[in-house]
């Protein structure tokens, strides 16, 4: 069984009781509804025949009551089942997501992942009632056709003759509208990406007074949108018209045949009315075209969700892995034969490295060489595909993951702030942080001054806050510093700070994190000079380890600090004169 | 519609102008829909006639003739339905156009005035919501006309066939309407709560997903699971609560259509015996009740309520986003100085803070920048250098004090003149999808290729122009260019602009020092005033004068004077200069 079908089966089974209840209610409703036209026919025939309608009416009212109650029950059970199953599946998916390591997280794009977590789970969870509903609908329309054949075989045959034509037309519409819908959506995303473009240049637009022109530029795809929108309507109109004519012909044909039956004595007047109603049920068979597409969608969603759930999570779904906590220590890290791959591409290969306890280690190298991957591996954010990473002598992937989180703190180039307020965002995590530690961390990361200038200080909500790159980085640093971790992994955390602030932060950190092991990914020569040890990462491996002075003999190493961070145009000749400043 | 009638003004005003402009289409739609209801109106009558005068009378030909008539009326209805699509499409597409236009214009205006979120997720949500409105509006319009006209036609047909029952049915329908109104009030509340819960979940889940790495790094899996999990549970509970009310709505169908049916059948023997009605009439009446009234009522009760509420909630959400930012205060007597006007810039006692309680970022700043000056502004990050640039360009207004250009306060200058006279190039370069020329001529649409080529050469963009293949080269995605290339494009854009005051706010930070020098020298040689927020000390050393900001005091001078007088400047210069010492080892 494929993974997606296994997930669908699991969901269907976990809601089994409720789904059976739904099936029972839906079936009861279907049976009562199918019996109704016959009861109606009996009542009509009794009335027309001058007999008492009493018994037929009692029968009719009973059926109406049963069908009404069954409908209410089915609707309630369906909604409840879907909501509960969706909730359960979302909890499961969330738990798994938060247990993924960086390698697992990076398999999915952000928007896509959110879609799987929200829409995907909801569609998947509906599978039980959906399937049951589809079966009941199919049975009802088949029963309608059978009833037609039973009441008047000739009229039923007329219906069966015309049905395939209608079915083909309905299917054809589904195909052509899918293509137009895709084009329509492409035009829409064109407009949205122009919109996003413009949002990234608001300061330029504002300074240039060009907002009006920008609106026109963003809205340009509106014409195309309208074109495809109208084309969709036209298709729908033409198919709808042909379908309606066919259905009318079919209905008149069936009724005429049955009318002839009334004269011939085959059919009673009441049965003629019943026939008309059954015809309505029989037409329901064409709606199954949509149901099939719907079930296909549910299967697609299940595939998306199960892909997430089947991404291996090293930490275990509850964020812990069975294992003893890390031993007490001073933060010595060792890597042996570490390999990290993404698909077929190795991000790190054959890495052996020893980071002495309490040392400040700079990681340098060109972009894409594997610096950030190394930082993530050292801190236990990324489980290597091969090799061992140990902290104070214990392989960290065999330890309780909570103790690893306590031992290592990370800061990033572009941190994402979690939590409601700025203060929340700094102390975010399962372990509480003392208020003094928060204040100290804000001070040491030089975030204190701008946080105080925020409208509500540290209690300012994060949502809607516009922070510069440097401010964000300082909050990210504070988040790493407020925890008493023995190892600090700082991945390019000061790239947006000017040199003076960067130096202030470094000095404060030298004081605050004196005894901690520090792994600093950086592009700045000044930072490198202050490190005890430099790890030069190049081409997905460690190229050299040593002091800044010893490595500087290599021209390739010196070149690392002679290009500005990021890629400058290649056509610009290198500077020949003595250089008088540091490049950020 | 009881459901949509109570929409808050915000939501209604959003759609009303678009619908008002489509009044003709609405009338055409109504006319075709009226015709479309013909088969419903005729169905009972024709069934009655086909039976009474045809099949029950043993007249096959007459029965078939009436049935053919019925078939014809169905085809006629379908034909009308076909024609109804065109005005319907016109209304819906026009409404979508109007909504998208309103959203884009308002959000751009907000973003430009800095009064709203500008992230990509907002954009994505807004486009999704406008599309949802389009679909719901289409379905709603289609259903409304079906319900209104079928209900009316069935009732009218019943009245002509069996007036006694029409009265009973009307009473039942009134009771059903009252029940629906009551349920709608409850349902609307629950449904809105469910939508709010869903949005909250989308928000918290979206945030957690975008910060998965950070959740992991902070050891916050438990916290994140708990916070998002709460929203998951709230969302499920709200959906169930809404469904509970929703499932009661079938009562409307029972009261409105099924009670009249039972009543008709109970009365039928008596009516038939009295000779007041024929068997065909009874069957016709049943046809009206079963095939006309019940489906229309079911549609009304089950879907219309949902959609009306959904549309209303969506429109209200969108209305929050399409309300334009407060109009900038009118500038009576705003002047546009003539072309020969020489703008010297002066700041007097300028004070600025973001919030009423936050510490001022700029406090009592005095500064004169004569026309043609070359000024550099230096200071630690976060000290408010960009704010000063915004104040000088008139993008922020100061809390106290005054910024004047050529002696006229910025507030007294005509906005278009000011935007043309001052060019501000921010650090984050704005390059959009389009040709290279469109990007370069952004601030001076009339500029010639010769001028562009000269500017590209002066600023250092020429090799990039060559690599891309000339000014007509299409830039499909800004991300395909390096940061440095993008900055060069925005620099040339400002260089060819008519501006006589150019402010570069760290606009060269992604260039290497040589490229930066070339670009800055080009700007220094250009006619007009140049103000540079320095990213490196070399920018300051090239300037004629330097302004040092340190949060408390402000000093102005040249490099040597400041090295002597400003400890902060000396520190900045030393750190900047000392840094590469090791790299020369």
UniProtKB/TrEMBL annotation, chain A:
What GO MF terms are annotated? ATP binding
Q: Where in the cell is it found?
A: Cell membrane
Spans traversing the lipid bilayer: 21-44, 56-74, 131-151
Q: What InterPro entries would the database entry show?
A: AAA+_ATPase, ABC1_TM_dom, ABC1_TM_sf, ABC_transporter-like_ATP-bd, ABC_transporter-like_CS, P-loop_NTPase, Type_1_exporter
Mode of membrane association: Multi-pass membrane protein
**What's the domain of life for this entry?**
Bacteria
Q: Which residues form the ABC transmembrane type-1 domain?
A: 21-298
Going by the UniProt record, its keywords in alphabetical order are: ATP-binding, Membrane, Nucleotide-binding, Transmembrane, Transmembrane helix
- Would I find Membrane among this entry's keywords? yes
Residue ranges of the ABC transporter domain? 333-564
Main location per UniProt? Answer: membrane
Region described as Disordered? 562-584
**What CDD domains is this protein classified in?**
ABC_6TM_exporters
The family database entries (PROSITE patterns) matched by this protein are listed as: ABC_TM1F, ABC_TRANSPORTER_1, ABC_TRANSPORTER_2
**Pfam families to which the protein is assigned, alphabetical:** ABC_membrane, ABC_tran
Official protein name in the record: ABC transporter ATP-binding protein
> Which species expresses this protein natively?
Streptomyces lycii
UniProtKB/TrEMBL annotation, chain B:
Which InterPro entries does the record match to this protein?
AAA+_ATPase, ABC1_TM_dom, ABC1_TM_sf, ABC_transporter-like_ATP-bd, P-loop_NTPase, Type_1_exporter
Domain ABC transmembrane type-1 stretches:
25-302
Which species is the source of this protein? Streptomyces lycii
Q: Name one GO molecular function term.
A: ATP binding
This protein's membrane topology, according to the annotation, is:
Multi-pass membrane protein
SMART domains xref list? AAA (SM00382)
The answer to whether the entry has keyword Transport is no
Q: Which residues cross the membrane?
A: 26-48, 60-81, 136-159, 165-187, 250-272
Q: What is its main location?
A: membrane
The protein depicted here goes by the name ABC transporter ATP-binding protein
Q: Where in or outside the cell is it found?
A: Cell membrane
Instruction: Using the record's annotation, list all stretches that form the ABC transporter domain.
Output: 345-576
Q: Report keywords, A-Z.
A: ATP-binding, Membrane, Nucleotide-binding, Transmembrane, Transmembrane helix
